C-alpha cells in the first residue's frame, strides 16, 4: 500500500493480514516475510499473546512493557531468541549481537568504547572521503543512469566501515564479496527455527548447505585477511580492530582469541554496513516520493554548507536531514523485530510470562501504532524537529543496556552520506517501480531499489 500526493506521502507498507490465520499458516508466512503476518489489531499500543504448538509468544507493543523488557528487567530478557541465535551463529559465532551472559558482559564495554561518539571526528573524515569518492563515480555516469540504490549504499557503507573498523581500503572486489555473501546468506537462512516450536528451548542447528557455507566463506575470507594484518602489526592504529588487538594483549581476561576477534569484526562489519545501507536506501525512496521534503532538506544544506561539501562538523546543524533519517528509521527500522527469550517467569501488563517463552518487541508495529503516533504510515520528518518521541515508542536501535553500540556512528554516517549525495544529485525511483518492504534478517525493499541518478 502506498499513496503519493502533491504534499504528502503514505509510505509503502503491506496490507494488514485478514482472514483465518492457523498456526501452520502463520509460521509459513513468517518464514517468508515477517511483515505479512500482522493484523490491523496488532498495531494497537498494547501487548498480546498467542500459543503455537505449546510455545507462548508475546508481542510487546505497550511502551511501559517495552521498557520492562529492554531496561527495567532486561536481565530476564537479555538472551536473543533461538531463531536469531541459530540464524546468525554460523556467520557471527559468539559475536556481541547474539551473545549474552559473561561473554556479552566482557565484550560490550570494549566494543562500545571502540565505536564511541568521541571517536566520530576521526571516523567522520573517513565518511567524508568515501562519500566524496562515490559522488565522483556518480558524476561519471550518464545523466539519468539507473542504478540499484541498495547495492550502491551497501558498497558505500561497506567501504566506510572497512576503513574505520579495519583501517584498510576494502576495494571493489572485496566489497562485492561481502555484499553478495550477506545478501545470499539472508536469502538462504531460515529465520524461523521450527525446532523451538516443537519443544527444543534452544532451537535446532540450521542445516549448513553448500550454498550457505559458500556465502559465509566469502565473508569470512575477507574479514580473516584483515584480522591477520592487524595481528601482524600491519593495520592502521586508528582502526577499531587495531584497538581491539592492543587492548586484548593488555587484558587477557577479555579472552579474545583470533576466532573471537573475527566474530566481533564480523559483527561490527555486518551491523555497521547492512543497517545503514538499508536506512539510506529507504531514505532515497522517501525523498524521491516527497519532493517537498527534499526541497526543505536542500535549503538546509545550502544554508549550512553553501557550495562546499558537507562535513562531519556540519552534522549537528543539519536538523532537517537528521529528521529525515529518524523518520526513515521510524517507518523502516533496519531490524524490525527484536526478539528475546524469557529466562524466568514474569508479568508484562496483564500477561503472565512463562520461562523460555518468545517475547518480541516489534519496531515495525510500535513505530506504526495509531495509538502512539499521529498518521503513523505518513512520512513526516517534522515530527522529529520540535520534540523527542515518548520514551519506548521509538526503538530503531533497541534500548536499555543492549542498545546498539554504534548508534551515533550510524546516525552520523546516514546524515552525512545523505546530505553529501543529495547536494549534488537528484535521485529518483525508476519509473514504474513500486517499493515493497520485506523482512528476512533485515528490512529491505524487495528486489532492491532501482533509481535514476542526475547531477543537479
TrEMBL record:
The keyword ATP-binding belongs to this UniProt entry's keyword annotation: no
Keyword Magnesium in annotation: no
GO molecular function: heme binding; iron ion binding; monooxygenase activity; oxidoreductase activity, acting on paired donors, with incorporation or reduction of molecular oxygen
Superkingdom: Bacteria
Pfam families with a match to the protein in the record: p450
InterPro entries with a match to the protein in the record: Cyt_P450, Cyt_P450_E_grp-I, Cyt_P450_sf, Cytochrome_P450_Monoox
Binding site for heme: 404
Keywords on record: Heme, Iron, Metal-binding, Monooxygenase, Oxidoreductase
Needed co-factor(s): heme
Annotated family: Belongs to the cytochrome P450 family.
Protein name listed in UniProt: Putative bifunctional P-450/NADPH-P450 reductase 2
Organism: Hartmannibacter diazotrophicus
This protein's encoding gene: cypE
Amino acid at each position: 500500500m502506498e499513496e503519493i500526493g502533491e504534499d504528502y506521502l503514505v509510505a509503502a507498507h503491506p496490507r494488514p493480514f485478514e482472514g483465518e490465520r492457523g498456526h501452520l499458516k502463520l509460521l509459513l508466512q513468517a518464514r517468508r516475510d515477517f511483515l505479512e503476518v500482522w493484523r490491523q489489531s496488532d498495531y494497537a499500543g498494547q501487548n498480546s499473546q498467542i500459543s503455537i504448538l505449546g510455545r507462548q509468544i508475546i508481542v510487546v507493543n505497550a511502551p511501559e512493557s517495552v521498557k520492562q523488557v529492554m531496561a527495567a528487567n532486561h536481565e530476564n530478557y537479555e538472551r536473543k531468541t533461538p531463531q536469531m541465535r541459530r540464524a546468525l551463529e554460523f556467520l557471527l559465532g559468539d559475536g556481541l549481537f547474539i551473545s549474552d551472559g559473561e561473554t556479552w558482559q566482557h565484550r560490550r564495554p570494549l566494543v562500545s568504547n571502540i565505536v564511541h561518539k568521541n571517536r566520530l571526528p576521526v571516523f567522520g573524515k573517513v565518511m567524508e572521503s568515501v562519500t566524496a569518492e562515490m559522488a565522483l563515480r556518480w558524476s561519471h555516469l550518464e545523466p539519468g543512469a539507473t542504478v540499484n540504490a541498495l547495492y550502491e549504499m551497501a558498497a558505500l557503507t561497506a567501504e566506510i566501515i572497512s576503513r574505520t573498523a579495519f583501517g584498510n581500503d576494502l576495494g571493489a572486489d572485496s566489497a562485492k564479496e561481502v555484499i553478495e555473501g550477506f545478501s545470499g546468506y539472508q536469502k538462504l537462512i531460515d529465520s524461523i527455527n521450527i525446532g523451538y516450536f516443537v519443544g527444543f528451548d534452544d532451537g535446532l542447528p540450521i542445516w549448513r548447505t553448500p550454498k550457505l557455507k559458500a556465502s559465509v566463506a566469502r565473508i569470512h575470507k575477507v574479514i580473516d585477511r584483515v584480522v591477520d594484518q592487524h595481528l601482524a602489526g600491519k593495520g592502521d592504529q586508528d582502526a577499531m580492530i587495531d584497538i581491539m588487538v592492543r587492548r586484548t594483549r593488555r587484558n587477557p581476561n577479555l579472552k579474545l582469541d583470533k576466532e573471537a576477534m573475527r566474530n566481533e569484526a564480523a559483527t561490527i562489519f555486518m551491523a555497521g554496513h547492512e543497517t545503514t545501507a538499508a536506512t539510506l536506501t529507504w531514505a532515497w525512496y522517501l525523498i524521491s516520493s516527497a519532493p517537498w521534503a527534499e526541497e526543505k532538506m536542500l535549503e538546509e544544506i545550502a544554508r549550512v554548507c553553501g557550495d562546499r561539501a558537507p562535513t562531519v562538523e556540519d552534522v549537528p546543524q543539519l536538523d532537517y536531514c537528521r529528521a529525515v533519517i529518524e523518520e526513515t528509521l521510524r517507518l523502516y527500522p533496519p531490524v524490525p523485530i527484536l526478539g528475546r527469550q524469557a529466562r524466568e517467569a514474569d508479568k508484562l501488563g496483564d500477561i503472565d510470562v512463562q520461562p523460555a517463552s518468545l517475547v518480541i518487541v516489534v519496531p515495525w508495529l510500535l513505530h506504526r501504532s495509531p495509538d502512539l503516533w499521529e498518521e503513523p504510515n505518513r512520512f513526516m520528518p517534522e515530527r522529529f524537529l520540535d520534540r523527542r518521541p515518548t520514551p519506548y515508542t521509538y526503538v530503531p536501535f533497541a534500548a536499555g543496556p543492549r542498545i546498539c553500540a554504534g548508534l551515533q556512528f550510524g546516525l552520523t554516517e546516514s546524515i552525512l552520506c545523505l546530505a553529501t549525495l543529495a547536494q549534488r544529485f537528484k535521485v529518483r525511483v525508476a519509473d514504474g517501480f513500486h517499493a515493497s518492504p520485506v523482512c528476512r534478517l533485515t528490512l529491505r525493499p524487495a528486489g532492491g531499489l532501482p533509481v535514476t541518478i542526475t547531477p543537479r
